[in-house]
Design a protein that fits this description.
Distance between the termini: 41 Å
Oligomer: single chain
Protein name: DsbC domain-containing protein
Organism: Caenorhabditis tropicalis
Keywords: Signal
Number of strands: 10
Structural class: mainly beta
């Protein structure tokens, strides 16, 4: 019984500390980003260690490439979109180190004012923290 309780507590702790993290060597080819999506992807995002963010849109004028926060297109030749919901990096480099996630086409629902003592738990993290050495 103690073993089961210990395993349950360790599992919950590992889930509580964020999304999946992975470290890979530079030069690895055709790396599929294991982002947990709900199959209704609007865009992908990545956030670098310096706080800069970029978006890969699946619709609109910037479809199929990374765009920075100012709307400037960023070289995206190293990435391939695989329908319906995944990105593949052709060859990993240190410049690809970032936190990758997705934006759903479904807008979050505002539950309004909740009764006292009632709260909504946040969902599990869907992104991946990629470190390239």
């Amino acid at each position: 019984m103690k073993t089961i309780l210990l395993l349950l507590s360790l599992t919950s702790l590992s889930l509580a500390f964020g999304g999946l993290g992975i470290a890979l060597p530079a030069g690895e080819k055709d790396f599929h980003l294991p982002i947990r999506t709900d199959k209704d992807v609007k865009a992908f995002t990545r956030e670098f260690a310096n706080g800069k963010k970029e978006t890969w849109s699946l619709t609109g004028p910037n479809k199929g490439g990374w765009v920075d926060e100012k709307g400037k297109k960023v070289d995206s030749s190293n990435f391939v979109f695989k329908a319906p919901d995944s990105l593949t990096i052709k060859k990993l480099s240190k410049a690809d180190s970032a936190y990758y996630d997705y934006v759903s086409i479904h807008e979050p629902v505002n539950p309004g004012t909740l009764p006292p003592g009632v709260h909504i738990d946040p969902g599990m993290p869907s992104g991946i923290d990629l470190t390239v050495n």
